[in-house]
Design brief:
52% helix, two-stranded antiparallel ribbon, alpha+beta, 5-stranded mixed sheet
């Protein structure tokens, strides 16, 4: 076959695929479904999406298509919700209709619907109820968990002091301190910063947060049947999770040998006691597969998001020394040399505003986790059938121009009134909202205040002398920490 004939056949094939795609789109798209950019055959809108930071592409598309629009990744249609009013309307006012977690191939491969964060239906309800109750029993929001956090604050301060004001990368130190809070809840004891098992667990968790949203994993979600034969970060992710699962299995088997229903030391103990109580219930959700997934969920959610926010906070202090100076003065006035307590926040409106603005600016989970409609619903004039894949874009809420005066800038005034009093903002949704709001929100808030206040009580944070400009670029991933960097923690006299 000559080159001309080959070219003709290629054009014909492309035309046929295009016509089939248009026909399929016409047949499968319900009437009054949100519009969006025209998808191409096979790839959908893949060609116009930034696979490393898709939320940036979605924010741009919302300028053209409005606050409710459709994109197509491969053959999967996704409805994107943007802006505070729209996202709140869906997640809060229509919480039941938008309360399911979307079915995503990589999540199914990793958890098969088990655990908490990525589970579905009655399984999710059972795990969420157990998690919230157990966290409360083990001191979430009480002095006992505050004492655990303050213990880790002490160890983190000691670690920072060891660098004697010289530049260092705080990634592992901060993740270890924050991670140890959830480890203590899960296992009943903390782990040493130098423990190789702990360091490996931290490394796997940090890497997985990046791999789960990598371009190769995105392609796996679009074409799982094909991509499962190719190497890439999606395969590494599955391998890493298997290693974490092995650690968890060994841990809870050890707990089982020493289990005492009258002296439960950890969340794992509480789960295993419940498992024994329901051993004759064939439909019980308290089985080992759920335990492994739940523990892994809490390790990831309880460490990576909060640790990344703390690291953003310290980096922002080096960028805005005038803000840091005001926080220092408020700490001196309210706390002095005493140990910080969570209740101090009521007397520290500026520090409280700074921490909220760190969370808003850091934009830690910009895409949110995908939702799915539980039933047919008419929403803002559009018809969304049961099972519609929903992306409530949290970055569009935290950077909504109608809610924040300077959404692209770091400005603590977003959470202060003209008299300097702290002001709550309804559009402050870093933990999402509705039925799927973060189960550990109260724990995270306590950690952020105590870690950041304890560190700023002891140190002044500065950029290294060889750094001309502080880089506030976010790294890629489902969680967006700052890019790798070094800071100086100069002890305060």
């Amino acid at each position: 076959m000559d080159l001309l004939s080959s070219a003709v056949w290629a054009v014909v094939l492309a035309l046929v695929l295009y016509l089939l795609s248009v026909l399929n789109d016409w047949k499968t798209t319900p009437k009054n479904f949100p519009s969006g950019p025209r998808p191409l055959p096979i790839i959908g809108n893949l060609h116009i999406i930034n696979l490393k930071k898709p939320y940036l592409s979605l924010m741009e598309l919302s300028k053209t298509y409005g606050s409710v629009f459709t994109i197509q990744m491969g053959m999967t249609k996704m409805v994107v919700l943007t802006g505070y009013e729209t996202v709140k309307n869906a997640l809060v006012n229509h919480a039941e209709e938008f309360g399911e977690r979307a079915y995503v191939p990589i999540f199914k491969a990793l958890q098969n619907g088990m655990g908490l964060i990525l589970s579905h239906g009655d399984n999710w309800k059972a795990m969420r109820r157990f998690t919230i109750t157990t966290l409360r029993d083990f001191g979430m929001g009480k002095c006992t968990i505050e004492d655990r956090i303050l213990e880790e604050c002490y160890h983190l301060v000691q670690r920072f002091q060891s660098f004697q004001g010289k530049p260092f990368d705080n990634l592992i130190s901060v993740n270890a301190a924050v991670g140890n809070v959830i480890v203590a809840i899960l296992l009943g004891h903390r782990m040493d910063f130098e423990d190789p098992t702990f360091l490996r667990l931290l490394s796997l968790t940090i890497d997985n947060a990046r791999y789960v949203a990598s371009p190769m994993t995105v392609l796996y979600n679009m074409y799982p049947g094909v991509m499962r034969f190719f190497p890439g970060s999606h395969k590494t992710l599955i391998t890493n999770v298997a290693e974490i699962n092995e650690f968890i299995t060994k841990t809870f088997v050890s707990s089982l040998k020493e289990l005492d229903a009258n002296d439960m030391r950890s969340l794992i103990d509480a789960f295993l006691v419940r498992q024994q109580e329901e051993k004759d219930n064939q439909h019980s959700y308290f089985h080992n597969e759920n335990l492994i997934s739940l523990v892994r969920n809490l390790l990831t959610a309880g460490m990576e998001t909060t640790a990344s926010t703390v690291r953003w906070g310290l980096l922002l202090m080096t960028k805005y020394p005038e803000v840091q100076d005001k926080v220092h003065k408020e700490i001196e006035r309210v706390i002095g040399t005493l140990q910080p307590k969570y209740d101090h926040r009521h007397q520290m409106p500026y520090t409280n505003a700074v921490i909220h603005e760190i969370q808003r600016f850091a934009n830690i989970v910009p895409m949110n986790l995908p939702h799915q409609t539980t039933k047919d619903v008419t929403f803002m004039g559009y018809f969304l059938p049961k099972g519609t894949y929903i992306i409530p874009l949290l970055t569009s809420v935290l950077k909504d121009k109608t809610q924040f005066a300077e959404p692209e800038l770091f400005n603590p005034q977003h959470f202060l009134d003209s008299d300097g009093n702290f002001v709550k903002r309804e559009a402050f949704m870093p933990f999402s909202a509705g039925h799927r709001v973060c189960a550990g929100e109260n724990l995270a808030k306590t950690e952020l205040f105590l870690f950041i206040t304890s560190l700023l009580q002891k140190f002044t944070f500065r950029k290294p002398p060889y750094v001309s400009e502080v880089d506030l670029t976010a790294a890629a991933g489902i969680i967006t920490p700052p890019m790798p960097h070094e800071i100086c923690a100069v002890p305060r006299l």
